[in-house]
Amino acid sequence: MIAAAPAVATAYRGRFAPSPTGPLHFGSLIAALASYCDARANAGSWLVRIEDVDEPRSRAGAYEGILRTLERFGFEWDGPVLRQSARTSLYQSALTRLIADHQAYACACTRRELESARMNAAGERIYPGTCREGVPLEYAARRQRAWRVRTADAGIAFVDRVQRAQQQDVARDVGDFVVQRADGLFAYQLAVVVDDADQGVTAVVRGADLLSSTARQIMLQHRLDLSTPSYLHVPVAVNPAGEKLSKQTRARPLPDEPLPTLLAAWRFLEQLPPDVPLANPREFWSWATSAWRVARVPPVLMLPAPSDCATGAAR
Question: Which of 14, 99, 177, 259 shows a CA-CA span of 20 to 30 A to 270?
């Protein structure tokens, strides 16, 4: 069992890292609010990073819209906003190291060929190791190759600040996973690890839909000799059908008036209500960053979003 070492005591540095696939919605706000309050409550800095490494999924104008919405809701970030699409040389350097250390290998399998592979609890296909010892002869003529990380028969254990003790056997539950796709785009798992280390992030606060990715990221941190931040996964907001709020499930974009939705997000995380009425986002943040209590966040993976924040026609 590989246990994630506690983060070395240093200045708190958090981040919010949305993907520009559409406007921010209530689920996005939950992650942004929790990460912002946790950073400011710990006298730390808070970064914004746009995770557009999957460029085909990025939507025109979404990047600018995300920043305008954050500003309208009163978020104040530290330093420049970084975009993953401008950082591919860093990801390539990390992949080159993994290859040189014999920790990554080329894979010629197609998505269709993996449709019969076993599925894990998160609904992901577990890679069966087809190309682990080399690309099979019948696939050799294929020009495109993905790169996969070679997993080991060892569990990864860590303590989430809300979801508590976690462990996963990556080899058994995930298999060798992709760090660069066959189309040349780098996978989220590698990009996020490189970015967090490069930006000096000490605390990752995000939605519980990414809890199952954490063991893979810790494994990559070990392989690349990078430090491991602390992790805090807040419940994911779901619609009445039990689906995570997202562009695909027609999540309602955040409204023009911020304060009622900020208070709804605060209640969603089961934080104590304010003692006096709040007039605007500035008053909300002045109070909330000192009233934030991690111990009050419910240790569950999902919770229903308020009905007026869940779904609606996209703008």
Answer: 14
Catalytic residue among 227, 247, 283, 306: 247
Non-local (6+) Cβ contacts of 101 within 8 A are 223
CB neighbours of 133 closer than 8 A, spacing ≥ 6?
A: none
Which residue spans within the chain are E strands per DSSP? 2-3, 13-16, 45-50, 82-83, 104-107, 146-149, 155-160, 164-169, 177-180, 203-207, 230-234, 236-238, 302-304
Q: Can you read off the two tokens belonging to residue 91?
A: 């990801």
> 3-state class of 147 per DSSP?
strand
**Domains, the chain, ordered by start:** 13-85+189-310 (3.40.50.620), 89-180 (3.90.800.10)
Q: Tokens 């710990």, residue?
A: 42
Distance, in Å, from the CA atom of 306 to the CA atom of 315, rounded to the nearest integer, reads 19
Please report the pLDDT score of residue 109 as a whole number.
94
Residue 141 Ramachandran class (φ > 0 left, ψ -120 to 50 alpha, else beta): alpha
For residues 300 and 309, which has the higher predicted lDDT (pLDDT)?
A: 300
Q: Indicate if 244 belongs to the active site.
A: no
Model pLDDT for residues 239-291, shown as the tens digit of each residue: 999 999 988 888 899 999 999 999 999 999 999 999 999 999 999 999 999 99
Asked whether the whole model's pTM tops 0.70, one would answer yes
